[in-house]
Structures are given as structure tokens and as C-alpha cells.
Amino acid sequence: MSWLANVVGLAPLSARLPLDSFLEDVHYRSFVDRGEHPLEDLIHPISGFLAPVFFVLMGLRTDLRSFAAPGVLAWRRR
Q1: Which of 36, 55, 67, 77 is the most exposed place for a label (fewest CB within 10 A)?
Q2: CA distances to 10, 34, 36, 61 from 56, in Å
Q3: Torsion of Cα atoms, 40 then 42 then 46 then 48, to 10°
Q4: Continuous segment of H or E residues that includes residue 74
Q5: Per-residue pLDDT for the chain (78 aa), expressed as one digit of tens each?
Q6: 38, 28 contact by CB (below 8 A)
Q7: CB within 8 Å of 55: residues ≥ 6 apart
């Protein structure tokens, strides 16, 4: 989903909303009632690997020079 969002010019994280809707547990409740594994158990090995990779990649893409811009770290009171 992230790849598809990137292809059409959206931020990859914008794919999260439709994916969350698709993976809602109400769609898979009948499988669990039949004795199948819950979706969380099936996704856990993949998410356990991809979540750290995601945060490392986002950290590498962070431009720390933007914090040096005047007023970025200044606290504003209204």
C-alpha cells in the first residue's frame, strides 16, 4: 500500500488509513471463531522485522540541519 501511495505521489504513510480499515478485525472474526489464528499472530513476524527497519530508515532521512533554522526550537506563547 505504501508503494502504491508513493507511485501516485502521496506520502507512503498516507496508505495507513485504508490499510487499517481493510485489516479491521471485524472482517476476520469468522476465521477466529472457526479456530484460525488471529490476524495479529499472523502479522507479528513481519511487523517485528519491518517496524525497526522503518524507524531506522526514517531516522536516516531526517535532516538535522532543519533544527538549526532560527525559531525552530523556540517556544512560542500565545
Answers
A1: 77
A2: 21, 38, 33, 9
A3: 50
A4: none
A5: 777 777 887 777 767 766 666 667 676 778 778 888 887 788 888 888 888 888 888 888 888 887 777 777 676 665
A6: yes
A7: none
User: Which pLDDT value is given to residue 45?
Assistant: 87
DSSP state of 15: G
How much is the pLDDT for 23? 67
* CA-CA-CA-CA torsion sign (6, 9, 13, 14): negative
pLDDT for 77 equals 61
CA 66/CA 47 separation, integer angstroms: 30
The cell 477466529 sits on which residue?
A: 32
Taking the C-alpha atoms of residue 58 and residue 63, their distance in angstroms, rounded to an integer, is 10
